Amino acid sequence: MPDPALLARLRGAVDHNFEAQTAFLTELVRFPSLRGREAPLQDWFARTMAARGYAVDRFTLADVPLASHEKAAPMVDVDPAASVQVVATSRARNPGGRSLILQGHIDVVPEGPAEMWTHPPYAGVVRDGWLYGRGANDMKAGVSAIVFAMDAIRDAGLRLAGDVHLQTVTEEESTGNGALATLLRGYRADACLIPEPTAGTITRAHTGTLWFRLRVRGVPVHVAVADAGTNAILSAMHLIRALQDHTVALNRAAERDPSFGAVRNPIKFNPGIIRGGDWASSTPAWCEVDCRIGLTPSMEVSEVMAGVERCVAEARAGDAFLANNPPEITWHGFQADGYVLAPGSEAERLLAGAHEAAFEAPMEERLSTAVNDTRYYGRYYAMPALCYGPGGEGNHGFDERTNLDLLRKATLSIAGFIADWCGVEEA
Predict the structure, then answer these.
(1) CA separation for the pair 170, 36 (Å, rounded)
(2) What is the predicted pLDDT for the residue at 228?
(3) Which end of the chain has the least Cβ crowding within 10 Å, N or C?
(4) Are 133 and 117 in contact (CB under 8 A)?
(5) Cα–chain-centroid distance for residue 248?
(6) pLDDT of residue 325
(7) Phi, psi at residue 237, to the nearest 5°?
(8) The pLDDT of residue 427
(9) Is the Cβ–Cβ distance between 384 and 378 less than 8 Å?
(10) How far apart are CA 328 and CA 325, in angstroms?
């Protein structure tokens, strides 16, 4: 647990800066940093961190050898050269402490119909202790927490004894390639903290995720003689029903998973986007469905992919048209493993102490049926990877919002953890 006198200094700095932190988060939310459109926010962030005295590295996914890494995910309809990553590094003047990666993603999912929001999705409205907006909770609040945790250490008159790489990445919501790119760029540390909106809990394990696209072709005819043709949308629905049944079987298998065995239906299947047809009075000649399916940490990505392909192949046989006109499966986006954070690391112990000091309650753990970037650092690059941050409501939904009281406390606990992990001296 942080020294009480040190924590008091950090608390004073966090409280003093919190109005500025709220304004900073509001500015982050006002950038509509959708996939492929993150560069304006990343450029602003790079300038902001340079003004704070960080050494800033701005690069794109095209600047690193993604194709050479087996865990790189395929990207469709996105230009890697337009996907900007930022690493802001604080170097220790007198190195001797442990190094740390602080990482957050700034890409957001589409907001949907703006008229269905209470407040405009990119306005960053503050009301009754909440800040509203797309990405406010997932996870720009966490980005503000790591920036202002570092500010608090500086403003408390302290200097870190270890290097810190503060990273903002893209592609977390679709591939994870942004996180991987920072590792391929050469950034390493003794531990990593990713402040996803966990509401002050530590993520013990997360499931993996796969994205794929089903494409069905048909024979269009006038709807007056629909029986003489085929309906690609109905054929796609037949495949979706088969995949729903397949997910039931996967969840039965998940009961044997050491982490998620007690979680009801941890594997989620979602047909998320559908496109098809050309005319309301013609049977559709084509249909595409973009789907997402999960897997537990004990399942292999390749085996789950093969299972999806078998399911679709078997479902073909039950459809008169599909039996002779096989659908196409395109794997695009996530091919993400699950991850389990092994308990007992020194990094987790120090974070738990900092949390208890800031929240005046023990740090609890959670299991997540959604993916996050810790798998890269922990599973593939063997560093303790902690997923812990502020919290709120409405991720990926309408009226997404983050709780400002939780943000203040999480910022303090992260500052205390950084100080304990890296070590500090008087500036």
Answers:
(1) 9
(2) 66
(3) C
(4) no
(5) 25
(6) 84
(7) -60, -35
(8) 87
(9) yes
(10) 9
Point out the residues of the chain with pLDDT beneath 50.
Answer: none
Q: Six-digit token pair at 198?
A: 């966990």
Tell me 299's DSSP state: S
| pLDDT score of 219 | 81
Specify whether the CB–CB gap between 377 and 190 falls below 8 A. no
| Strands 55-60 and 385-387, bridge-based pairing | unpaired
What amino acid occupies position 421?
Answer: W
- Residue 367 structure tokens: 């299991």
Tell me how crowded residue 269 is: count the other CB atoms within 10 A of its CB.
21
Residue 348 contacts by C-beta under 8 Å, 6 or more apart in sequence?
Answer: 202, 341, 384, 386
Q: Which two tokens stand for residue 213?
A: 């696209």
Helix H or strand E segment including 281: none
Q: How far apart are CA 16 and CA 187, in angstroms?
A: 32
> Encoding tokens for residue 128?
């009754």
Distance CA 357, CA 2 (A): 7
Annotate 74-115 with DSSP letters as a single string: P--S--GGG-EEEEEEE--SS--S--EEEEEE--B-----GG
Percentage of the residues of the chain whose pLDDT score is greater than 90: 92
For 410, the 3-state DSSP assignment is: helix
**CB-based contact 1:351 (threshold 8 Å):** no
Upstream peptide bond of 139 is cis (omega within 30 degrees of 0)? yes
> Residue 52 and residue 90: Cα distance in Å, rounded?
10
What is the 3-class SS of 24-67, one letter each residue?
Answer: HHHHHHHCCCECCCCHHHHHHHHHHHHHCCCEEEEEEHHHCCHH
Tell me the one-letter amino acid at 100. Answer: L
Distances (CA, A) of 145 to 102, 180, 399, 403: 10, 22, 21, 12
Rounded distance, CA 153 to CA 6, Å? 10
What is d(CA 400, CA 57) in angstroms, rounded to the nearest whole number?
Answer: 31
Strand order across the beta sheet in which 164-169 lies: 55-60, 84-90, 164-169, 100-105, 192-194, 385-387
Task: Convert the pLDDT of each residue in 109-164 to its tens digit.
Answer: 999 999 999 999 999 999 999 999 999 999 999 999 999 999 999 999 999 999 99
What's the CA gap between 366 and 217, in Å, rounded? Answer: 43
N residues, the chain? 427
Residue with tokens 């020194």: 346
Write b or e for each residue in 290-306: b if 16 or more Cβ atoms lie within 10 A of its Cβ, otherwise e.
bbbbbbbbebebeebbe
> Cα separations (Å) of 53 from 25, 50, 86, 150?
20, 5, 14, 12
Strand partners, 253: none
Structure tokens at 278: 């050309």
